[in-house]
Amino acid sequence: MSDIPAPGERRADPLEPRLSAWEARTDLPLTGLAVAFLVAYAWQVLDAGASPGLGFWLEVWLWVVWGVFAVDYVTRLALARHKWRFVGRHLFDLVVVALPMVRQLRALRLITVFRVLNQRMDTSFRGKTGVYVGGTTLLVGLCASLAVLDAERHAPDASITTFGDALWWTLTTISTVGYGDHYPVTVEGRLVAGALMLGGIALLGVVTGVIASWFVEKIAGAEQSIEDTTRAEVRLLREELAQLRAELLTRERAELDSPAPDSPQR
């Protein structure tokens, strides 16, 4: 068995036993809250005709969940023995907690949901990576579309005013194509765009690496197969040469050992 953890699989940190125990206990509940957060946020953004009362309670729920994540971060920081090490390894969590403006990105904790797929799959590491990359791309695309629509649709001179516009903008941005027919005009929308551009480059890099590793593996496998075949053929040739040599030696000995025939008389 390999000691390398599979993607999405949490490994206990021997330097932080209390922190690891807390994360193991809260991982699933926080993932459930992230799902509920994403559903409520999508409802709030997409249901433009919702009643004021519903909009108020959705907003309350979003802030409550954000508060739970903030408490979780503070608790983990308090449990960590090496504070600066924890802060350095959880900069994304700190940004999300410190900037409520981008709190919807906390839904990216949904990546832990793919652990269930990881535990039930019996494929190579590359196959698991493909599942994570695909799931992460869809999740990032959905969150970015909702975030940019929420920031842009009521802004003056906005070109992203519907969810379809937001999806199209997300697709062209994350793929680094950038047609320019839709673009954010607000500060928050541009922050989302910048994060999505960086994420798109990173995802393309991962996908390229996965494809490259597949080609390298296939080429290496073909070369190994050719090498094995060549070695087998060389081995057979050596055996045949050895047999021929043995037969020649046997015939030479037989000729030397046999008596010479009498000369014919005239």
Automatic annotation (TrEMBL):
Source species, domain of life: Bacteria
Stored Pfam families: Ion_trans_2
Record InterPro entries: K_chnl_dom, VG_K_chnl, Volt_channel_dom_sf
Organism of origin: Actinokineospora iranica
Signal peptide start and end residues: none
Coiled coil (residue ranges): 227-254
Annotated transmembrane regions: 28-46, 58-79, 131-149, 191-216
Annotated localization: Membrane
Keywords assigned: Coiled coil, Ion channel, Ion transport, Membrane, Transmembrane, Transmembrane helix, Transport
GO molecular function: voltage-gated potassium channel activity
Record's bilayer topology term: Multi-pass membrane protein
Residue ranges occupied by any Potassium channel domain in the UniProt entry: 159-216
BP-aspect Gene Ontology terms: action potential
Name of protein: Voltage-gated potassium channel
GO cellular component, one term: voltage-gated potassium channel complex
Keyword Transcription regulation among record annotations: no
